[in-house]
Amino acid sequence: MIEPLGSLSGRSLGSAGIGEPGFASLGRSGRALDPTGSDEHGSFLDALGEAVTRLNTQLTAADAAAADFAAGGSTDLHDVVLALTEAGIGLRLGVAVRDRLLEAYHDVMRLQI
Amino acid sequence: MSVFDTLRIAASGLTAQRLRMDVAASNIANAGSTRGPAGAPYAPERVVFAAAPVGGSPTPGVAAVALPALDRTVRVYDPNHPDADPNGFVAYPDVDVAAEIADLIGAARSYSLNATVTAAAKQTALDALEIGR
């Protein structure tokens, strides 16, 4: 007999266990990605500042890993490459946010009064 | 759940497989070592993997630790060997070179698999950035 899908236990990316009768009553123990984004940021500016700080940390970590590897340290090659990859993706995200910000600014500037 | 969790989990796999390769290399290199750091013959090592949290990710990565194998030595009769005991037996590390090579190949393949995961994770992050375009 095929088990009903609801009885499967495991992780889900949905909003498991937040008041939906189907999920809550099953008592499943999975981790969920909260789609509403429960992180509370004071303002956009705070969030932006935080993101820039995190990006800077990533870039510094990548730099440090590369320098340690070049100096013959114990850093693994894949750790260096992954640190560079993380920093690269973070930088792209930062650039994307900046692009959107500028786009929004230009949209506001073009408003007809 | 951060964007980089997949990358970090895969990175833990890469590190674990690197250790596995190091251990296989060490076991092969020391297959004939009758002396170790403590005077006793070299103790072959085995890699033990355990699920372990990485970088604040709720989904565990892997941690590997090299531990001495339980069956450590084989006794070979060679009375002229400088390390022979009074009965003429020399204790060699119990290394199965063929098994070590198989383990080495397995580690290299697993490393490739984890590298494939990192490539997929990176591509996913870049795809996510493309959504807004």
Shape of chain A: elongated
* Biggest β-sheet description of chain B: 2 strands, antiparallel
Share of helix of chain B, binned: 40-55%
Principal-axes geometry of chain B comes out as: elongated
Order of helices and strands of chain A: HHH
Number of strands of chain A: 0
Number of helices of chain A: 3
Question: How many structural domains in the coordinates of chain B?
Answer: 1
Helical fraction of chain A: 55-70%
> Measured on Cα atoms, how large is the radius of gyration of chain A?
22 Å
**Proportion of residues in extended strands of chain B:** 15-25%
Low-confidence segments of chain A: 14-28
How is this fold's topology laid out?
The complex is a heterodimer of chains A (113) and B (133).
Chain A: H1 21-24, H2 44-70, H3 77-109
Helix pairs in contact in A: 2-3
Chain B: H1 5-29, E1 45-52, E2 61-68, E3 73-77, E4 89-93, H2 97-131
Helix pairs in contact in B: 1-2
Description of the molecule:
The complex is a heterodimer of chains A (113) and B (133). Helices cover 57% and strands 0% of the residues of chain A. By secondary structure, chain A is an all-alpha fold. In chain A, helix 2 (44-70) packs antiparallel against helix 3 (77-109). The radius of gyration of chain A is 22 Å and the shape is elongated. Mean pLDDT of chain A is 74; it is low at 14-28. Chain B is an alpha+beta fold and 133 residues long. Chain B has helices spanning 5-29, 97-131; strands at 45-52, 61-68, 73-77, 89-93. Chain B starts with a helix and ends with a helix. The interface between A and B is medium-sized, with 14 and 18 residues.
Question: What's this entry about, in short?
Answer:
Chain A is built from three helices and no strands.
Key features of this structure:
heterodimer, A: mainly alpha, B: 133 residues, two-stranded antiparallel ribbon, elongated
